[in-house]
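Worked Example 4.2. Consider the chain below.
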Amino acid sequence: MQSTIIRTQAYVDGQWVSAASGKTLSVTNPATGEHLADVPDMSAEEASAAVEAADRAFIGWKKTTAKSRAQLLKRWYELILDNQEALAQLLTAEQGKPLAEARGEVAYGASFVEWFGEEAKRAYGEHIPSPSPTSRLVTIRQPVGVVAAITPWNFPVAMITRKISPALAAGCTVVLKPAEDTPLCALALAALAEEAGFPAGVINIVTTANPVAVGDTLTSHPLVRKVSFTGSTPVGKHILHQAADTVKKVSLELGGNAPFIIFDDADLDAAIKGLLISKYRNAGQTCVCTNRVYVQRSVMDAFIGKFKAAVAGLKVGAGDQEGTEVGPLINRKAIDRVDQVVKDAVGEGAELLLGGQRSDQGELFYQPTLLGGVSETMAIANQELFGPISTIFVFDEEEEVIERANNTPFGLAAYFYSRDIGRCWRVAEGLEYGMVGINEGIISNEVAPFGGVKESGTGREGSKHGIDDYLEIKYLCMGGI
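Applying the procedure from the previous section yields the following structure tokens:
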């Protein structure tokens, strides 16, 4: 694998470094099992050293003007787009998603760098009318400090830029721990940031095969003032506990159990198109993927016929193969879990309508699968699937389906299709989710706030709100006037 952006060392304090122990972490292609590279397996002590480097860099970085930070972010954005194809090829190689999706992710990831470069110049304070004629009251916003960012493997470019960009725009410095399955994209982004001209220590990338020890160091370190994490709800809860002793700011984007509701007045063809994109992109391995498909009884038969044909037509294969729509799962643990979930559901009475087996495309491929006759009493209805499985539920009334859709501790994303404007408002307001797609299966973009409610997290990424968690509000009372 040849590319000028590939790096196989960690990036700390402006230096490309190996682990002090000499230990490495092997990175493989999930589609083929091919060995791609070895990166440093860094220790908790080395993560602590990266935090200290970020803290030293913060002294100077926080004093830079918003305009100069914006210019650096703009240059980084341009370099990412200049290297879009190389990044997409790397992303597909280490993560597995189809190349077309990888290209889209790189553009999506770059959009956050552009957006927050623009927002850097809009971190406004305010003037407050004073109750006293001899005082003046104002607020200013200042960077919170060193940020620890922990990102997942399913979007190894976009999840990084969505966290690092607002931090840098605000004047914070960052220590990032990428997922152990997909560190190469993080290191490539750091190489481009270095080329863009970011000072030493402002961005630090720590790779490791021991995510618990390194993660605990980052989330409990007294010099870290903000933690941003995307991953599972149990790990997110652990991070909250870790951050509590030093009262850090914490933003969490956690698990989901997204419902996709199709009402009898929906445009059925449009709904199926939206559902296919929502459910099967990245082989179902996204936090906002549809988990539960609710179909109103009167259109169930028509839906099953059309959807089954559409899913059967999906091409499974390696991400770099022409026309691939469903790539591999990320690792052995993931495919074993998906296979067991399907077997358990069938054992509980679900009807296997399509798929339900490992694919002959390779060790980590699973057939796009449809399960009918699913109910909320089954285990599959109450867990995040993270695989190419559609579970289909039937419902009768609007109020009923809202109640059933909300009957989960999660509240990240929800979707529904209807052409009744009154129903659109009622259902959108009734769903207990941070994001709702109405007649739309893809909802993410840089200008809108991304995040969940309940046990799906806290805080928002993207949009004008995405920079808020990286800033403190300081109140200035000026007397004697």
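The CA atoms of residues 281 and 420 lie 28 Å apart. The first strand starts at residue 10 and ends at 12. Compare this with Example 4.1 before moving on.
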